[in-house]
Amino acid sequence: MKPAPFEYRRPATVAGALADLAAAEGARVLAGGQSLVPLLNLRLATPPVVVDINRVEGLDAVVEREGRVHIGATARQSAVLASELVRSRLPLVAAALARVAHPQVRARGTVVGNLCHHDPASEMPAVAVALDAEFTVVAPDGSAATSPPPTSSSAPSPSPSRPAAWSPASRSRSPRQAPAPASTRSPARPRTSR
Ligand SMILES: Cc1cc2nc3c(=O)[nH]c(=O)nc-3n(C[C@H](O)[C@H](O)[C@H](O)COP(=O)(O)OP(=O)(O)OC[C@H]3O[C@@H](n4cnc5c(N)ncnc54)[C@H](O)[C@@H]3O)c2cc1C
């Protein structure tokens, strides 16, 4: 099958991506396309606008800031898997990613796209929960907030309930900094927007 008609946009900035997403109800982000494109082809998703974020500069970074590893929205699974920072600080992420799909898919697919797709059969959502990962979610007005990964076991939705929200990054504590059980958890560390 072929996708239903949609408008394709390829902004170069975060602000442009937010504007494109806000412009049409049901607009969807395109990251690696490894899950979205099949949904489009099967017409299980029929967004009026697809916003390709691959030209947005800097979103492919994998960096450490304030004790956390930040994984940008367009960081390929293969790049995250090869990252020395991830291998040393988040060995569980590297071990799980090595089992995600195969090299061709990992060369295009992103970690953040995988988490946003939220397939309960995927390795990464469980890893994100285990490592106390947080999403940085940017609203159409540009305000950013952090949220924990979703934990429901429902199948990925072809039509997300909050299509205008955009997750340009996820970040994880290293296992050494994993939170203690709730009863002994220390106060939350200060959070940055991205
Ligand atoms: C043959 C094959 C085998 C696979 N095997 C596995 C496997 O074994 N394990 C596994 O975990 N996965 C597997 N996958 C899925 C693969 O890991 C995908 O790459 C991943 O699920 C989606 O990442 P993506 O970057 O391609 O996202 P896309 O396909 O571009 O997007 C997926 C969804 O997330 C949304 N989205 C993406 N990025 C953002 C963002 N920044 N903000 C908001 N929404 C966003 C999109 O709008 C879309 O709804 C497989 C895929 C294929 C084709």
TrEMBL record:
The keyword Calcium does not apply. Keywords: FAD, Flavoprotein, Oxidoreductase. It holds the Pfam family FAD_binding_5. Residues 162-194 have a biased composition (Low complexity). GO terms for molecular function: FAD binding; oxidoreductase activity. Residues 140-194 are annotated as: Disordered. The keyword DNA-binding does not apply. Gene3D superfamilies: 3.30.465.10, Uridine Diphospho-n-acetylenolpyruvylglucosamine Reductase, domain 2. InterPro entries: Diverse_Substr_Oxidored (IPR051312), FAD-bd_PCMH (IPR016166), FAD-bd_PCMH-like_sf (IPR036318), FAD-bd_PCMH_sub1 (IPR016167), FAD-bd_PCMH_sub2 (IPR016169), Mopterin_DH_FAD-bd (IPR002346). Residues 1-191 form the FAD-binding PCMH-type domain. Residues 147-161 have a biased composition (Pro residues). This is FAD-binding PCMH-type domain-containing protein. It comes from Modestobacter italicus (strain DSM 44449 / CECT 9708 / BC 501).
